[in-house]
Specification:
Number of domains: 2
CATH topology of the largest domain: Rossmann fold
Number of helices: 17
Structural class: alpha/beta
Largest sheet: 7 strands, mixed
Amino acid sequence: MHHRLRLSGIRKHFGATVALDGVDLVLAPGEVHALVGENGAGKSTLMKILSGVHAPDAGTMQLEGAVFSPGDPGAARRAGVVMVNQELAIAPHLSVAENIVLGAEPDRGPFLRHAAARQRAAEALAQLGRPDLPLNLPAGRLGLAEQQLVEIARALALGCRVLVLDEPTSSLTQADARRLFTLVRRLRDQGKSIIYISHFLEEVESLSDRYTVLRDGISVATGDTAGTTPAHLARLMVGRTVDELYTRSPRPGGEILLELDHLAGETKPASASLRLRRGEVLGIAGLVGAGRSELLRAIFGLDSVRAGTVRVGTYAGPASPLLRWEQGVGLLSEDRKGEGLALNLGLEENLTLPGLPAFLRPADLRRETRDWIDRLGVRCSGPQQPAGQLSGGNQQKIALGRLLRNGADLLLLDEPTRGIDIGAKQTVYRLMDEAASSGKAVLMVSSYLPELLGTCDRIAVMCRGVLGPARPVAEWNEHHIMLAATGAAAGTE
C-alpha cells in the first residue's frame, strides 16, 4: 500500500514530562484515519509536531516517501499538511474569499490579484460542494459550521494533501455535523488524506477507515475501523473496561428541591415547568438554540426572568447568582474556559473560591486540595498548577469539584461532558451518581443522547423554548427524544 504520511518512533519530552514515547502512524491517500485517546494521551503534541509547531526529540516523518521535517507551521502548510483546530482561526472582518486565500494570495509583484483570488476561493468552495457561499460576505457573519467550511476551503487553496481535523463537531449541531461528514467523505473520495481527532467514538466508527489509539504517549493499537467497536476503542483508550460507563447507584427519592412554574426569560425559555426532587438526575434534551442553556441561567439568576416562578426549597422570590450560591445552587457552565474557571489561578483557588473560610491555614488548604485532586482523578503537577495548563477533561473535573466541595445541593450542569475524553466522562458520571445517591438534585443539559438515557432518572425535552413534561427514562429512546426536540411528537409545540 502506498503511504502518503509515515510517522515512526516519534518521541517528545517537556522537561521531565514524557509527552510522546515512540508513536507510529501511517496514513494512506484517500483515507480517513481516526486518532483517538484520552486527554493527555499525546494527540495534541503529535499533531503539533506534524504541523511544525514542535520538533520531535527522536523519530522520523515521511511525506510521499521524502523526509518531512517542517521548521514551522508555514513550512508544513507549504508542504501540504494543514490543521484545522477546534478553536477556529477566522479573520471575522475579512470576506469569505479573503479568508480562503489568506496565506496563499495570488499576486503580481506587490499587488494582490483580486480576480485570481476570488477564482481560487470559488474553486475551493466548489471542491467542497458549496459554490453558493457568498465570497464577499464578512466571515464573522457566518455561522460556526460555515466558518469551519471556510477554514477547510483555505486548506484546499493552500494545496493540502494531509488535512487534520481536531474535534470538528464539538460545537456543531447534529445537522451541521452530518453535513461535515458528507464533506469529509467527499474530500476522501478526491484522494485527500484526513486525520480525524474526536472523542465521539460513534463518529469514529461511522466515518473513519482506519484508527490509531494513543495512551500515555504511546501508540497502543491501530487497525481497520470496520473490525472494531466503540466499546473496544474505549477499552484501548483507557486501558480498562468501560462496560459500566454509566454508574447508577440506588437513588432514594426525597423532597422537592426545585420547582418551576411557567418560567419565561426575556427571550428564552418561553415556558418551562418542572419539579426536581433530591436524589434525582433530571435531563434536559433539545436542539441547539432551543433555550436549554438559557433555562439554567435563568434558574441561577444570571439571566432575567420575565414571567413565572422559580422555587428553590421554600424560597420563590427574586434571586441573584450570589443568593443562589448561598441557597446551595451551583451552575456548571458549558463555557468552562470563559465562565467556569479562573485559568490563571491555581487549582486550590479554583476549587475553594468563593467558599474559602478566612481562618483556613495555607497548609490545610493545600492538603484539602490534594484530597480533592485524588478524589476527582485530576492529572496535574500539584495544587498550585494554573487551571489553564490542564487538559479539557481535567479542567471539567475541577469545575465540577468546586460545586461539590462547596456543598451545592442543587447542581445545574450545562453540557458537562462536552469535549472531554471517555475516561473523564466516566469520572463526571460517577460524581453525578454519587451526588444524586447522597440526596443532592441534578439538572443536566446535554446534546449527547446516550448519556441522558444512561445517567438520568427522568428526561424532559425542550422545543423552541417550551419545555415538555419530564418522563421516566424508560419511556424514552433516542428516536422519541429527537421527535420531541423537532416538534414532531405530541406534547411539544
